[in-house]
Design brief:
Largest sheet: 9 strands, parallel
CATH architecture: Alpha-Beta Barrel
Shape: globular
Number of strands: 9
Strand content: 5-15%
Number of domains: 1
Order of helices and strands: HEHEHEHEHEHEHEEHHHEH
């Protein structure tokens, strides 16, 4: 990766001062939530939304379960965020287990509810461990979904990007080609799968630029709260887990508060390194735990401000 003069100066400043002392807060953040399954989880979600709302994120997104298993709950959560907060809500939408007409109908409902942003994804197979197959009469992949959504309305569309090879891709170039197809079809930005070392993102950013991709590539940041869960998810997504990560969390299984402090520190350090490399947009996978994301943003200089939502078209 070739660093600019400003980035080198920023790197020197990071070494000279306390690591987070002079981070300007000149960044855009967004947050991802998952739809609640129980009343208690619903309370936790809305407490998280209200905690993070003052930070003025560009948008907040709500995930969509494998095989559309959370379709109704996702829709209800997105619609409520759009209706009851000043946040711009983005809905995840996948190609799995639905026809084009069904997916188009869901998108139309989002537009009618004032939702203008969709995270368009191919989606995972409804049965874990099986190979993905397009639904008969459905969108065959995320690029086709993006094109279909653009035909309906001028949605803002985010898509997935993979700093490390997607398990279904034969090689990294296939991932980049697929990302370019999604962006060429009308997507605005790529949000990356989580990763744990800044150089992973920088290598991906350079490779994307060499492939002619000039859209925003936003790093997806996931604070680690449970190493076993991270190992399981990483195996499914092809994400490398460095050995030092497990060592940092050794002995903390029965100390959740200490584990949360360590998790916030590790994620903030990753963000600090990315910031030193010129990154100014971050997307946080919150797992509906607001305090972690809030602490990381605070370390990066992000402070409460009044969120502003653009008027619905």
């Amino acid at each position: 990766m070739t660093l600019s003069v400003n980035q080198l100066e920023e790197a020197r400043r990071a070494l000279d001062a306390p690591l987070y002392a002079d981070v300007a807060g000149d960044m855009a953040v967004s947050f991802e939530f998952f739809p609640p399954k129980t009343e208690k989880m619903d309370e936790q979600l809305w407490a998280s939304v209200r905690t993070l709302e003052p930070l003025g994120p560009r948008f907040v997104s709500v995930t969509y379960g494998a095989g559309g298993s959370t379709r109704e709950r996702t829709h209800a959560t997105v619609a409520r965020i759009q209706r009851e907060t000043l946040l711009a809500a983005a809905a995840h939408l996948t190609c799995v287990e639905a026809t084009r007409d069904e997916i188009d109908g869901i998108a139309q409902e989002y537009w009618a509810a004032g939702v203008r942003h969709i995270v368009a994804l191919r989606g995972d197979p409804p049965v874990a461990g099986t190979r993905y197959a397009a639904h008969p009469g459905g969108y065959e992949n995320a690029a086709a979904l993006v094109a279909g959504l653009k035909r309906l309305h001028p949605f803002e569309l985010s898509v997935a990007a993979y700093p490390e090879r997607h398990p279904d891709s034969g090689h990294a170039r296939a991932d980049l080609d697929n990302l370019k197809r999604k962006l060429d079809a009308g997507a605005t930005r790529g949000i990356t799968q989580f990763f744990f070392e800044a150089e992973t993102f920088f290598r991906f950013r350079d490779a994307a630029a060499a492939a002619g991709i000039d859209a925003d590539l936003v790093p997806g940041i996931m604070p680690v709260m449970n190493v076993a869960s991270v190992l399981r998810m990483s195996a499914m997504t092809g994400t490398a887990v460095p050995g030092w990560l497990g060592r940092l969390f050794e002995g903390l299984d029965e100390r959740p508060e200490a584990r949360q402090l360590v998790a916030a520190t590790v994620a903030a350090e990753l963000c600090r390194k990315l910031y030193a490399g010129g990154v100014r947009q971050f997307h946080f996978y919150t797992l509906n735990r607001a305090e972690l994301a809030y602490a990381i943003c605070h370390l990066l200089g992000v402070r409460p401000r009044a969120p502003v939502r653009e008027a619905a078209a």
